[in-house]
Amino acid sequence: MSEVTVLVKASIIKAISHFAAKRDIRWYLQGIFVEIDGEDAYLCATNGHIMAAYRASVDVRSGNDNKMSAIFPLALFQAVKKSDVPVALTISANTVSVKQTDITLSGTPLAGEFPRWRKVIPQKLSGEAGQFNPEYIRDLGKVAKLINPSQHNHPMIHHNGDAAAIVSLGDSDFIAVVMPLRADTGCKLNMPEWALHKADALAGSPA
């Protein structure tokens, strides 16, 4: 297998690392999956509940026309600094490496089969509101700022009821998918009478 290199912004690496599993018996989720298809490259990470995928370009000097993939262990990204210097991800015969400036960390790809991430992405969205783990929403906010630090950039959730929702994060090449919390079908809000009565009393009180 020929050696192939993908250049990615450091901020994207920082962002997509948020979605990888940190402590999970599924060791193959504790890394970033890199998929090469000709001149296109795709980075993906997931913890099984929330997932992100990013589209990048292969270094044209690689001259690659093949399809290949590897799971980069998270440990290889520990030296990546948030800066304008891009990160070079290289896949060779039995090794993967991460380089930024003059620092290179290399290792063996994680064994195991990474989930077929495209199957997770919904083809249609119902628009029905869903409920989500607040920790994931917090992380999505952090990721949105990493991708596009504009003060007006916030994650936009495209709801899909009890099915996976898509999240826009300010970059058309970066997509997130989050699974909702399953609400009980009989769950119904009982209006807080104490609050409503108090509001009525205040509204009728003299100025």
Please supply descriptive tags for the structure shown above.
elongated, alpha+beta, four-stranded antiparallel sheet, 207 residues, 16% helix
Secondary structure layout:
Layout lengths: L3 E5 L1 H8 L13 E7 L2 E7 L3 E8 L9 E7 L13 E5 L4 E5 L2 E5 L26 H14 L8 E3 L6 E4 L5 E5 L14 H12 L3
Helix pairs in contact: 1-2
The biggest sheet amounts to: 7 strands, antiparallel
> What form results from the Cα inertia axes?
elongated
Question: How many whole angstroms does the radius of gyration measure?
Answer: 21 Å
Distance between the termini: 81 Å
Q: State the strand order across the main sheet.
A: 5-2-3-4-11-10-9
Q: What's the overall average pLDDT, rounded?
A: 87
DSSP E strands, number: 11
Number of helices: 3
Q: What order do the helices and strands follow?
A: EHEEEEEEEHEEEH
Q: List segments where confidence is low: pLDDT < 50 over at least 5 consecutive residues.
A: none
By helix and strand content, what is the structural category? alpha+beta
Sheet-strand content, in percent, reads 25-35%
Q: Tell me the helix content.
A: 10-25%
Short description:
The chain has 207 residues and is of the alpha+beta class.
What can you tell me about this protein's structure?
By secondary structure, the chain is α+β, with helices and mostly antiparallel strands. 16% of the residues lie in helices and 29% in strands. The chain has three helices and eleven strands, in the order βαβββββββαβββα. It has helices spanning 10-17, 134-147, 193-204, and strands at residues 4-8, 31-37, 40-46, 50-57, 67-73, 87-91, 96-100, 103-107, 156-158, 165-168, 174-178. The protein has a seven-stranded antiparallel beta sheet, covered by helices on one side. A four-stranded antiparallel beta sheet has the order 1-6-7-8. Strand 9 (156-158) and strand 10 (165-168) form a beta hairpin. The longest helix has 14 residues, at 134-147. The model has no long low-confidence stretch (mean pLDDT 87).
